[in-house]
Design brief:
single chain; about 200 residues; alpha+beta; two-stranded antiparallel ribbon; 4 helices
């Protein structure tokens, strides 16, 4: 079973963000699409089958709630007719009021074979003060699912231009690693990211 360093995924997301070519003229849907496409391409380069809006049963809801992005492992040496594992479930959400719903979707009770090895949630939140509540919810939900989880929270900082970007990697050994970045527009109106510690 694959176990990725999800903080390395966050580092790639930050360092490559300018390559997504997102400008102040793009709408929210384009930001969502480009970010999902980035991770879909990453999954395919790593050898997974990537699917957008892939079906996943949510037993509590009694229906399928599609995953924004999934990575599935295919290996004919192990099985001729089914995927070996669901290696990633990713959700990307722009609406503040859906922050709890996004976490519930990432950690929903589902059918056998649909428990992801890794989950990534990228979501806009109202403020930094929401992070503790959301992280506690991740810990509660993941105590059952036992996924490696990366939560990326983006929020506007009134004291500076642009956004703060806080990442938390929840490991299965109960430790949490944190990294902080920012997202701003450059002089040409295109969005880029950088790490807080690299700005003097």
């Amino acid at each position: 079973m694959n176990h990725f360093n999800l903080m390395q995924f966050f580092e790639g997301y930050v360092r490559n963000y300018r390559r997504l070519n997102l400008s102040s003229d793009h709408n929210i849907s384009m930001f969502t699409k480009r970010e999902i496409d980035y991770f879909a391409n990453l999954g395919e380069m790593l050898g997974f089958d990537a699917f957008i809006e892939d079906g996943k049963v949510d037993k509590a809801k009694g229906r399928s709630r599609p995953m924004d992005l999934s990575w599935w492992k295919w290996d004919k040496r192990i099985s001729d007719d089914t995927y070996v594992s669901l290696d990633l479930h990713l959700e990307r959400e722009s609406q503040f009021h859906r922050d709890v719903e996004t976490i519930e979707k990432l950690f929903s009770e589902t059918e056998e074979g649909f428990r992801p090895t890794h989950v990534i949630g990228i979501q806009y939140i109202e403020s930094q003060e929401r992070i503790e509540l959301l992280n506690n919810l991740v810990l509660e939900k993941n105590s059952i699912q036992q996924s490696h989880a990366l939560m990326i929270y983006r929020f506007y900082n009134e004291n500076s231009e642009g956004q703060q970007v806080y990442a938390y990697w929840f490991k299965t050994d109960k430790t949490i690693e944190e990294r902080r970045a920012f997202c701003k527009e450059d002089d040409f109106g295109y969005w880029f990211m950088g790490f807080e510690e690299e700005v003097s």
